[in-house]
Amino acid sequence: MSLESMLPIAPARVRALVLPVGQIKRDRFSSFVQRLNEEHVVQLRDISADGRPNRNMFSPRAFPNGAIFYELITYVPPPSHLALAPFELFREPLAVIAVADGAELENGTFSKRQSANNYATTMTERNIRTLYQELEQLRDTYPKMLTHRVLIFDFEPPADNAIPIPEGIKTIPSVEHSKRTTIRTIMCDISSLLLAEMTTLAKSFEGMTAIETPGQAPSRPGLNGTSSSYTSDDANPTAARRNSQFAMSSVTRSVSSSGAADRGQVRMSMPVPFKSLPFGSTSSTPATRPVTPNRSGLSNPPTTFDDIASMNRSPGDPPSSEQNGTTRPGTSEGVKPTPTNQDKISMQGFGPGGLNERWRNKGRGRATILVASLYLQAGRWTDALKELTEGATMAKSINDHLWHGKALELIVTTLVLLSWAGVEFQVPTICLPPNEKTINSTSKGPEIEEGIPDQPKYLRNLQTILPDLLERIVSLYTRLSGEQLPPLPLSESTIRFCNMLTALHLCDGRLDKKSLDIMVFGKLPAKVLTTSPRLLITPSRINITTLLFKAFPSSAPELLTTVDRAVILSGIASVLGSLGYHRKKAMVVRELVSVLIGGLVEARTRGAAEVGIHPAAGLVALNAANNHGHGAGALELGEGDIEHGIDAFLGLLCKIYGIVSFDNVARRSSVDSPSISDTDSSVISRIQSQSFARQFGIQNIKLNILRACINFSEALPDFNGVLKFSSDLLRTAGSGIAPGPRQEDVAPIISREEQVRMATNISKTSNLSQRLGLGHLYAEYWDEFLIRGITLDPLPPMRTPIPHSKNVLPGVTTTRTSQDVNPFIYNPFLRAPDNPAVETTLVAGEAATFRVTLQNPYEIEVDIESIRLDTEGAEFESSIADTVIGPYRTQILKVIGIPKTAGSLKITGAIVKARGCRERRFPIFPHPWAADTETKIKGIGLAALEQNKTLPPPGPDLKPDSIELNVISAQPNLIVKSTNLSQSSVMILEGERQTFSITLQNLSSTTPADLLLFSFQDSTQEPLHTAIANRDATPAELYEYELILARKQALRLQKIDDSKRYIAPGGTATFSFEILGKPGLTNGTIQVDYAHLGVPQAEIESQFYTRQVCLDLTITVNASVELTRMDVLPIEGEVPRPLWHRLGSNDMEPEHPAPDEYCLLLLDLRNAWPSDMQVRLKAASGMEIEEHILPGNTNRVVFPVPRVYIDNPHASIPAINPSRQRQFVVSSSKITPEIERGNREAFWYRERILEALEGSWRTRSGPARRGTLELRGIRLAPRMIEAVKIDEVGIDVSVEGPPQQQDGKEDGHDGGGQSGGDSGGDTIYVDEFAQIRVVITNRTDEPVHPTVRLMPALRHRPPNVALDFTRKLAWNGVLQRTLPPLGARATAHVLVGATALCRGEFAIAASVEETQLWTSTSTSTSPRRAAPTTRGGRARSDTETMMDAVLGAKERRIWHSRRPCLVTVRDRE
User: Fold this and answer.
1) Each residue of 1346-1367: pLDDT tens digit?
2) pLDDT band for position 1229 (cuts 50, 70, 90)
3) Distance between CA 1128 and CA 1280 in Å, rounded?
4) Are 1253 and 1178 in contact (CB under 8 A)?
5) Residue 255 confidence (pLDDT)
6) What separation in angstroms does the CA of 781 have from each of 519, 695, 785?
7) Are 235 and 578 in contact (CB under 8 A)?
8) CA nearest neighbour of 207 among 317, 319, 325
C-alpha cells in the first residue's frame, strides 16, 4: 500500500488499474508501467473532445489549462477503502488498462480455446484476438469501470501482412521506434474516453435522491451470503451500475476486520487467470454500503413527529418508498429495493422546514459535491470550484458537517491546482472564517505584502487563509453529530493537510511555484531541516505537529485494519521526517513496527493454518508451503519490496535511535554486499563512526529497537533483516574497543543467553538461506578488532635465508680470496644473523607459518569457518584454516602461506569467514584502543550525532599494522646426506691430521646450488678469542694465540677447484676435510653457506641470500709425544766427527769444525700413547735424528742446531692478525725496558730456532698413525739465549809471530778468531817479539764508534795474580785504543806488539765498547734498521721506530770476546 493517498492533491487524482494480460514477465510489466507513469499528467489541451452530444459534460475544451492526474495502481483497492466511496470518490479506479507484451505474441498461443483462433492466419493474429476476448472478460469482471483498454507494448507489425487491431486495443512500438508523444497520445485517447463516460456517472449522481456517508467497512467476503458489487455481481448480473447507494436496512457500527482478506484478491503482480481468480466471483467488496445515523440527538433535537420517527429507524432508510426508485445509467429499468419498514406511517410536514425538504436539500447538496469531485478529477477546476462552493453552502445550511468539510477540502485542492496552473481565482466566501466574509488588506494582507512583494494577490489570499481553513475542516470532520467519519479517511485527510502545510513551511512560509510543486508532485527539497527553531515562519512546525498527531490511530484493533494503521503511521512518520523531527518520527516508526509485527504474526499463523502447517513449524515450512524462495513469503512481497522498502524503513529507524550498525548509513541490499569496502581507511572510518554512535542515545532503548526489528524480520520472514539486526544487536551490546593486557571489563551488556540466542539465530538463518538458494545473504561480523596480530614464525635454521652484502663474496675483493682458511679475515657467515632481516625474509615456493591472534570479547564461541591471509605485492597463496574461538579470550591460530614469486610482500590483514557472516577482510590492530569517554554534553536530535562526526576522532589514532616481508627467488635446500665418520665422531692424537669426507644432497628439484662457502668452528676457538681479547696479554702471547688460530686450524677444507662447488637440482657432491688434533679440541662444526645466485658473482647488484647446513662433530684428542723439558748448551771444543755422521751430515766434513757456529739443543720427549713411537727431528741444514721411545718412557734427544744472528733482536713483536698490525699494542702490565728487551730477544731467537727445526712422529705398533711434534713449547731463558745468539760485533783475537815468521803459519791463524778455533792456542817464545791481532767485524747495518780493549791475563791464577803483568808481559803502546767509525758490514784489524818476559800460559781477551751512539745526519742517506725478515715482514717505518720508545733510551753497547786467545810462552830451545 503506497502513500499516494497522502498527497495534498490525492482527491484530484484518477486511479487507473493496470493489469497484465497474456504472457508477460514481471520485469517487462514493470518497465511498461514505468513508461505509462512518465505521462501520468495529461493536459486537457492535448485531449480531443468526444463528438457525441450527450457526452460533453466534461469536455476538455471548456478549460484547456486543466490537467488530469493519473495514479496507476497494480492492485485492487481493499474493501475498507472502496467502502469510502462516493464520499471519497478518488479511491475507486475509473479505468482499466491491460498491458500486454508484443514480444510474446509470436512465442506461443495465449489461449487454446478454438473460438479465439477462428479466422486467424498467424500466431500474432490469434494472440491479438485472444487479447480482445480477455478485454471483454475485463469489461465483465469490472463493469463499474468507465473505460477499458488493452495496450500492446513493443509491438512490431509484420511487414508482409497487416493485422487488423480490434477496437479497444492499442499498439505501442518499442522505445527505439517510439516518438516523444507516443505514450502521451495513448494517455490522451484514454482520457478522452474517460471524460466522455464521466458524463454518465455524473448524471447518475445527479439523479440520486439520497447519498449516504460511509459509516462502516464492509464485512468479509461471503459473509451472510453476500458477494462483491465492485466487480461482477453473480447473484444479479443485470444489476444496475453503482447500485451500492441503495443501502440495506441493517445498521451497525463499523467493525473494520475485513482487512485480513486474502491478498491474492487484492495484489495484481502476475497475469490474471480470468474466471478463476477472485476478480470474477469472490471479490471482497460487499453488496451493501455502510451508513451512519444522519443526525445526533445532542446536536439536532427532534422537533416534529417525523424527526422522532427518524430517530427510531435506520438513518440509511429513505423517508418514503418513492425516493428509492432510480434508473441505472444506460438502462431502461429501475431497481426499487423494498423498504425495511413498509407498515410504518410517517408524519410529514409542509413548508420549507419540512422533513422532505431537508432530505432533498441534503441529497442535492451531496450530489453537487460529487459532481464537483468529478470535475476536479477531470481537470475542470474552475467548474469544480463553482460546484463545490454551491455544495459547501448547501451542506453548511443544513448542518451536514462531514460533507461540508469534504467540500471545503476539495475546494482547497482545487485552489492549489489553480495556483499551480497559474490561473487567478477568487477565494470563495465559504472558505473565510465566520467573522470575516471578505479578505481585505487591513489585517494580515499588508504584512504579507510587505514581506513578499512579488507574490500574486490571489496566492497571498490563499496563503493567508490556508492554515485556519485546514484546521476548520478537521474540526468539521471531528464534530459530534449524527454521522461520524471513519478513522481512515479522517487520519488520511489530516495527514494530507499536514503535508500541505509542511510544503508551505519548507518554502519559508511562502506559497509559490516551489511549494506548489511539492504539494502537487510530493517531491521534497534536498535540504533537510534540522532541529533549530524556525519561529518566524508561518505555519510553524509546532502547529503542524499538533495537527498531525490528531491523525494518530487509536489503539483499538477493531477500528482499523493492520494495513490501514500501518499506512497512517507511515504518513505521520513521513511528515515528521520532512519537518526535521527525527526523534518523534522514530517514536512513530517504533509504533509502526509493533503494528506490523502483530499483523505479520497473524498473517503467518493464518497462512500456516490454511496449508495445514503448525505456526511454530518455522520459516522453512512456511516458505515451502507458499513456494517463496525469498524472505517475504508470509506477506507475498516481492524481493524488490523487501530490499527497497522495508530495508530502508528499518534502516532509517535504527539510524534515528543511533544503532551501532555495520556502516551507520541507510541499510543496503545484501546483493550489493560485495561492493562494501573493507580497506584500512574504510574500517577506521567505520570504527570511528560506530564509536560516535555508541556515545549517542540510550543503550537500553537501542537494544529494544533492535529486538523489535529482529521480531519484525522474523515475522515477515526477512532473512536478511534477521541476519543484519542480530549482528547489530551484538555490535551495539559490545564495547567496541581493542582491550590491552590490563584492560577493564569489556564484556557486552547483554546476558550470555541472549548472546547465544543471537549467534544461533545468525547461524540458523544463514544455513536456511543457503538451503533456499539465497547464497548472498550473510550477516556482518560484529567486532572490527577481530585480528589483533599476525607474526611470522621463524624458519628452521637450515631454511633461514641470511642476507649478505656483495662485498663478502670470495673473489669479489682480494681480502676474500682466503675465506675458507683465514680466520682473521672477517667472516660474515659465522656471525649471528640480523634477526629483523632474517625474520622478514621468505623464499619463493616454500611454505611459511604465520601466527594469527584472534580476539573474542563476547561470552560465546565464535566459529571461524575460514581464515586466510590478505597480502599485497608479490603473488602469495595462503592456506585456509578454521577454528573455534573460545568465549572472552584471545586465541592464536597458525596459517601457512606460500609466496609464489619474488618481490616485496606485505601482509595487511586476514580474510575471515565466520559462521553466518560475510567473508570480509579484517585489518591488524595490535595496539590497545578505546574511545575517549568524555563528559556527555546534551545534544538535540540527530544533529548531535552528525556534529560529533565532524569533531576529531575519539580516542588515540588507529594505526593498522602490517608485516613487510621480502620474498627472494627460489633457493636450493641442502642436507648432509652422509659422511665417512662413524656417528659424526672422530678420535685423533695430538699433532695428527686425518681426512674425512661429507656428501651434500640438494633436495630442490628445480634450483641448483652454485655458491658454496665453508666455515669452521671448534672448541679451541673460543678460548683463543678470549685470550686474544685479554688486555693483560703480552705481545708474545698474542702472537702465539694468533699463530695457533691461524696456522693450526682444527678443521679445514682440502683445496678443490671452484667449478666443483656446484650441486645440481636433486644432485649430490662430496667434499673432503682435514682435521688436526690439538689440545682442547672436543667438538667442531662444519658450516656450509650455500645459495643460488643465477649470475656470476661479479654481476650481483647489491645483496644476496644464503642458507646454512651444519655438521656437528664430536672429537676426542689424545696425547701422543709430549715435550716435557728442554735446554740449550754451548759447544765447548771441537764437535766429534762421528756425531756429524750420525746426524746425516756426510757432506759436511770440516777439518776443524768451529764450535762457535752450533749449540746443543736438549729435548726430553715423553711417549704418552700406548704404542711405540718413532720421533724424528730435522734441521734446516739437513741434519736429522730419529729416536725410538717406548710407551710411557721419556727419552732425551741431543741435537746440534746452528747459532743465530739477528740484526735487530729488539724489534717489535709482529701481529698475524691484519687488523692488529695497524695498532700499537702495549702490554698493560708495568714492565721495565730491560724486561721488554729481554722478552723481545727471547721471542725472536725462539722463532729462529723453531723455523730451523721441525719434528714428527709415527707409531711403530698398532694402527698406523703419524703426526707432527709440537715444539712450540720451547721457552728460552737468558742463559739459553746467550748460547744461541751471535753478537752484533764479532771479536777475534790471535797472536802472530814476527812478520818474517808468518809464512809458516796456517791460514786459520790470520783472522780465524780464537773463539771458534782449537783449544790448543798459539805458541810464542820468551823475549821474542809477537803481534796480537784483533779483528773487529760489524755485522749490523749501521756504523759504530768502537773502542778496543785488550785484557791479557795469566791462566789458572786468581784474578789479583792473573792481572799482575809486572815482569810477565810487555806490549808496545796501550791496550785500549779508539778506532775510527767502523762501517756497516765492515771489518777492522788492530795490531799490538807484545813480548813475553816469562814462560807460562796466557789468556788474551778483548772487548769493544761503543764510544758514542751513531746518529744519522740525514734520513735519506742513513741506512734504515730493518726488522727481522724471517717472517716476510715489511720494512720498519718511522712510526715503528717511535713505538720502540717502550725500550727506553738507547745506550752505548759493549761486546766481549766469547773465548780468550790462549797463548803458550816457551823458551826457545
Assistant:
1) 999 999 998 888 888 888 877 8
2) low
3) 5
4) yes
5) 33
6) 44, 21, 10
7) no
8) 325
Residue 1439 has a pLDDT of 52
Sequence-distant (6+) residues with CB within 8 A of 317 are 247, 249, 339, 340, 341
Question: Is the previous residue joined to 86 through a cis bond, with omega within 30 degrees of 0?
Answer: yes
Q: Give strand ranges (E) for 915-984.
A: 920-923, 963-968, 974-979
pLDDT per residue as tens digits for the range 484-525:
888 889 999 999 999 999 999 888 888 889 989 999 988 888
- Residue carrying the nine cell digits 660474515: 828
Which residue is listed with cell 492492485? 75
Q: What pLDDT does 822 receive?
A: 59
pLDDT of residue 1388: 93
Contact 985, 1115 (CB under 8 A): yes
Measure Cα distances from 175 to 97, 159, 178, 1412 in Å. Answer: 19, 19, 5, 128
Q: Cβ neighbours of residue 453 under 8 Å, at least 6 residues apart?
A: none
C-alpha to C-alpha distance for 832 and 839, rounded to whole angstroms: 13
- Which segments of 1266-1327 does DSSP mark as H helices, in order? 1278-1284, 1308-1311
Entry field: residues in the chain: 1469
DSSP character string of 35-58: HHHTT-EEEGGGSPPP--GGG-TT
Q: What does the pLDDT look like over 922-952, one tens digit per residue?
A: 999 999 888 876 555 555 555 565 656 566 6
Roughly what angle, to the nearest 10 degrees, separates helices 582-610 and 562-579? 160
Cell triple for residue 1240?
Answer: 723481545
Judged by DSSP in three states, 13 sits in strand
Residue 25, classed as helix, strand or coil, is coil
pLDDT tens-digit series, residues 731-743: 899 888 888 877 6
> HEC states along 312-368?
HCCCCCCCCHHHHCEECCCCCCEECCCCCCCCCCCCCCCCCCCHHHHHHHHHHHHHH
Cell numbers at 525, concatenated: 527539497
CA atoms lying within 13 Å on the CB side of residue 512: 11
Cell of 1109: 647446513
Specify whether the CB–CB gap between 634 and 716 falls below 8 A: yes
Residue 250 has which C-alpha cell?
Answer: 441493517
More confident residue, 745 or 218: 745
DSSP state of 258: G
d(CA 765, CA 777): 9
- Predicted confidence at residue 744, as pLDDT, reads 65
C-alpha cell at 879: 592456506
Amino acid type, 276:
S
First vs last C-alpha separation in the chain: 169
Span 1123-1165, pLDDT tens digits: 999 999 988 777 777 777 777 655 544 444 567 788 889 999 9
Distance separating alpha carbons of residues 826 and 823, to the nearest angstrom = 8
* Residue 472, C-alpha cell as written in the block: 476548520
pLDDT of 226 above 90: no
| Rounded-to-integer distance, Cα 565 and Cα 548, Å | 15
Q: Is 424 exposed, middle or buried (0-12, 13-18, 19+ CB in 10 A)?
A: exposed
- Rounded Cα gap, residues 855 and 153, in angstroms: 59
Phi, psi at residue 303, to the nearest 5°? -115, -15
For residue 622, pLDDT beyond 60: no
The closest of 488, 474, 654, 636 to 75, measured between CA atoms, is 636
Q: Which three cell numbers stand for residue 740?
A: 590491552
Q: Which residue has the cell 478485454?
A: 135
Q: d(Cα 43, Cα 39) in Å, to the nearest integer?
A: 10
- What is the CA angle 1396-1402-1408, rounded to 5? 105
At 547, list the grid cell. Answer: 495537527
Mean of pLDDT values over 748-775: 89
Q: What is the mean pLDDT of residues 590-600?
A: 82
Q: Which residue has the higher pLDDT, 1442 or 751?
A: 751
Query: Which is higher by pLDDT, 808 or 195?
Result: 195
